Backbone:
């Protein structure tokens, strides 16, 4: 659910995630299982967004 809310927020603000759905799912699961820290996620996100 959190991924859907985040992606909706980004799209409404003219930003899209430019990675495959499988990779996005892997990232979401890593966050949920606490295998990925917030800062690491923010770095990943900054490298995988496009302004439209």
Residues:
């Amino acid at each position: 659910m959190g991924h859907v809310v985040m992606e909706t927020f980004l799209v409404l603000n003219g930003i899209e995630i430019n990675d495959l759905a499988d990779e996005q799912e892997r990232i979401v699961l890593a966050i949920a299982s606490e295998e990925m820290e917030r800062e690491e996620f923010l770095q990943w996100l900054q490298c995988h967004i496009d302004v439209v």
Remarks:
- The beta strands are 15-17, 49-51.
- The chain has a mean pLDDT of 94.
- Residues 13 and 42 are 17 Å apart (CA to CA).
